[in-house]
Every structure is written in C-alpha cells, then in structure tokens.
Amino acid sequence: MRADNGEADTIHTSNLFLVRPNARALSLPSRGKMKTMKKRLVSTAVLLLRVALAAAFLSAVADRLGLWGPAGTGGVEWGDLAHYNAYVAKLNWFLPASIIPWVGWAATLAESLLAVGLLVGWQLRWIALASATLLLTFAITMLIGLGPKAPLDYSVFTSEIGRASCRERV
Length: 170
Prior knowledge:
The mean pLDDT is 83. This protein has one domain (43-169). α2 runs antiparallel to α4 (100-120), α3 crosses α4 and α5 (124-146) runs antiparallel to α7 (156-169). The chain is mostly helical and 170 residues long. The protein is 66% helix and 6% strand. The chain starts with 8 loop residues before the first strand and ends with a helix. It has a two-stranded antiparallel ribbon.
C-alpha cells in the first residue's frame, strides 16, 4: 500500500513485513557533488600530509639544535650539533671530514626552508620536488651508511611516498 505523502511502502509477504524506502531517500549525490566531496577530501588529506612532513622536518631540526633536550635524554636522537655531525659523518663516510659540518648545516637549512614552504603553501610543486630530492638523498645515504633498517625505522621511505602523493595532488 502506497501513501501519497512520500512515506515508505509496506509490503505484506506471508507473515513478514518488508519496508521499502521511497525513491528520494535512496538517491545518491549527483556526480557534481561527488566530485566536489572527493576534491575536498583530497585537499584536506594533502594539507594534513604537508603539515605532517613539515612537522617531521622541523622536529629533526629542533633535535639537532638541542630544543628537544640534551643528548642522552629519552626521545632525543642528537641533542646538539656535535652529535648530529658525528651522525652526518657516519652517513657520508665517503666525504672528507672537513666538509661534514657544511653538509650538516646544508641539510638543516634545507629541512627548515622546506618545512616553511610546506606550511605556507608557497610554490608547492617545487617544494615537493625539493623535498623528494632531500628525502631520497637521506634514504640512499642511510641505506648505504647504516643498512636497510635505519631508513625503515625513520620512515624515510614512507615520507618519500607521502611526499610523492602530495606533489601529484598540488
């Protein structure tokens, strides 16, 4: 029996009552609305990914500058530039010792600038490409210098994939 006010139909089948909702209740959003919803979801995901990558870059910079605490404190990897430069030397064993501090400062400056670029949203395609280059460089030097466990523990490959996704969507 159908009611004219748009309510659900009730169908009697033996002793079972089945309720069928009206057609308007089952309609899906239009293609335009679905595209808009998908676009908004992707934009939000890319924004959150940018913030996460920037936070990772800035956290590493804060650690090597001692902002997370001194070396040896729980959760602190380096704690100061001396410990960080020793790590840089271990990764870049093929470079002369005299340029290791320069390499360390170059990485620190690059991470800082890329983090700001990701947060501000300035020239995102170029920032994403530069982030990819930096993360890939980190991954390769960690893989060669420390073996496969180090880049996996530091999620360098995950960050690289996330960054690649970010570049494709910006």
